[in-house]
Write a structure and sequence with these properties.
This protein is low in regular secondary structure and 76 residues long. It has no helices and no strands. The protein has one domain.
Length: 76
């Protein structure tokens, strides 16, 4: 909850990606493309985070997760 001098986090789940347990090295997950209406506003002096949560028990070949994030937005 927002208060004087504090701002509560605003979390927006983007989606879920899955891998087969025996997926080969270089396997790609499905793309997540999310558009918000109305657009998300990030006030001046605040942060915009994109966070990946890796589930327990991951069984990929190298146990390495790597990705790219592209944010479509603008500054006013």
């Amino acid at each position: 909850m927002d208060g004087v001098g504090t701002v509560a986090p605003r979390r927006k789940p983007l989606g879920v990606q899955t891998f087969l347990a025996l997926a080969g090295i270089g396997s790609e997950a499905q793309e997540i493309n999310r558009q918000f209406a109305p657009p998300i506003v990030v006030d001046s002096g605040r942060w915009f985070h994109v966070i990946l949560r890796v589930p327990d028990g991951a069984a990929t070949a190298l146990l390495v997760f790597r990705g790219i994030v592209m944010v479509h937005g603008f500054f006013e």
